[in-house]
Amino acid sequence: MNESTTVEPVLVLSDISKTYPGVRALSSVSVSAAPGKVHAILGENGAGKSTLVGIAAGSVVPDSGTIGLAGESVTRMQPRMARERGLAIVYQVPALAPSLTVLDAVLLLLPDSKRPPRSGAAAWLTAHFASLGLTIDPTATISALSLREAHLIEIAAALASDPRVLVLDEPTEALGPEETTWLFARIAELLAKNVAIVYITHRIPEVVEIAHDLTVLRDGQVVGRGKVADFSADQIVELIVGRSLETTFPDKQQAPGTALEPVLLVSDASGARFSDCSMSVLPGQIVGLAGVEGNGQREFLRALSGKGLVSGTVSVAGTVVRMRSHGSATRAGIAFLPGDRLGEAMFGKMSVRENVVAPSLDSAMPRGLANRSLEYSLSQQAIAGLAVKTPTLETPVSSLSGGSQQKVLLARARLGDPRVLLVEDPTQGVDAGARVEIYAFLRAMADSGIAVVVLSTDAVELEGLCDQVLVFSRGRVQAVLDGSDVTERSITGAAVMSTGHSATTVSALPTRRRRAFSLGREGQAGVLAALTVLLGLATTIVSSAFVSSLNMSQLLAASATLILVGLAQLMVVMTGGIDLSIGSVVALSGVVISYFGTSGPAFALGVVLALGAGLLVGLVNGLLVTRLSIPPVIATLVTSIAVVGVAQVLRPNPGGSATPEIMTALGTTVGGIPLVLVLAIVITIALWFLITRTGLGRGLRAAGSDPVKANRMGVNVPSMRLFATVSAGFLAAVAGFVLYSKTGIGDANTGQSLTLTSVTAIVIAGASIFGGSGSAIAVAVAGILLQTITNSLTFLSLSLSWQYWLQGVFVLFAAVLPMIVRLRRSRADRR
To answer: Known SUPFAM superfamilies for this protein (predicted)?
Structure first.
């Protein structure tokens, strides 16, 4: 592009300010992005970068300022609005709801104009991935993916939206050199199409390589801006941290003496994806592990932590360690710090203090009792000199910046007094200033005699930090670089030249993942149906009267009620809540209808009023949850009590019998199947279609799976929750109508137990009580199974205790089976 040509920016953020409780995140920040250029937004963690792009994407609401996109200015952007106007964003933590499939997640991220028809969506997505060099199964579940894989999928979704502006928030943190090269090639293609790129990163070499303009934030304010070509790398770093950095890396160890014995000695180690690997680490040494991602170095490091070593020997300070588990490695003095800090190493909701002392409870609790003052003393001792930015030691560790979280992990390791320290991606998600402090800490640990092993995808980092680097290729150590040979060029050259992999082809999801034994959402329905048939056959052998037409008709009619209450509970559970008012709404519905059971037209009016009452209760529940932020369990418990009270006032005693003509009409069968069951089946199919085949269904599942990520995906989470509670109220009222068709009388106490039954139905149907998943068909079959259990007990002539045992065994088996399947799938994925 001709630099002298004046081009109108496609994204303009003007005077943006944002304040959180006690924190001024942004103060009158202005940034613009021009077509065909990369604009880098730089700054330390907490400088306001992610808040700024969140405002542009609509996931964060500014206090003041305007957002201009595609020629239109607004004071508040919505995620869906931003996407429709051509803005796509790739977040530092991928905004992909864990319970969705890859296909559903991508479709949810696309603007309406770019979304393909559902019938051909899977083929379209497979072709799109193939065009990008990605091998990804559209049916895979997001929760089964690694962080790297999720990043690639979100990038691919952004590219599929054909954006006018692409925002990339730390896009290479989870990617290796191969994927980074792939991403930069995609960026070049977008620039050729005049797409504006907003690029957030801590990696200065990336800025120098691809960016045209830069804006530097510090403490929520702009402290520098201009053309990247006008700044040296050192000047950029100085702007970011607010001070001059004489050196990024500490001085390395002098040449070790030949008489020193290694602290860590590994001989002929083999395991998953690596074989015959050997290494030794002398006191004072930092040894790095390098290579193109996926060549076994990561698995090798983790095997040294006690997970995955099949053969070979590992010795610590001359003693052979039997690497059976993480525990055996820890007892031998090996400390492991994984790259996924919050996912694997830290307790996000627990305090800094609790995280620091977690592995050292014997020291913190010498008599098995909590000693707060001792914990404080140990924590302060551990973090001394690390400059952990936290208000207090009681602050939840998840609220800290990435750099401070990493420092907490390092403090924990120091407190454990290890002999060997294994560090995976030590500066992932860490700003420039914190990196210097972390490098200094690692060097100090090595100087104290600890063997330090670092795995990093950053060759510059390995060059500046390590005394020796092992370069892996195809599961083996391809090269060992020492002393002056440890350079970025040598590391990268050894990694690239030793592999035959294309630098632009990324395999994001191995096909083995789909060969593992699986049980889909509807697979649980098949299991429950089989249990129902087996129970029916066993009961028929004992008493042939079980299969009489009269009993079957009664069983199926009664099942309709259980199906409907299960579906009602499913709607709320899928969005992450529990509805305790379902049984009360069933009772109220029957009571309302009982006042109109004297004639056909009056009865129809009663049904309409009952359904209206259910909708009203659901609306109240939804408003309590979405407007007042009351937890669903509490909100629905309150309304349940109120609804029961109304029902008791209306019908202090059972009454309001329906006429024989109405009862006969309600008992109509279609081909021997009760009409009420046909109604329940029709509703089941409708909900199945809504959940699995519509954008609304994807939104419901996303909202329950992860509300924050769902919001970033453009889902209106409060609307989803409101829709779920209103739907649940309506379905519970329909269940009240069906129950009344059996009893023909209004009773405020009838149906109260159905709340617990509804929860049982969704649990054995395999729905997660934490939200995000569930099958309407499985819930329907679960309702039939529960009614079959109840009905069979009479024909089996079992005592009351055996009745409870039988019901418990069936329910337990149906509920535990999905857990067994998930465990088998997890083990298969690790093989």
So the answer is: P-loop containing nucleoside triphosphate hydrolases
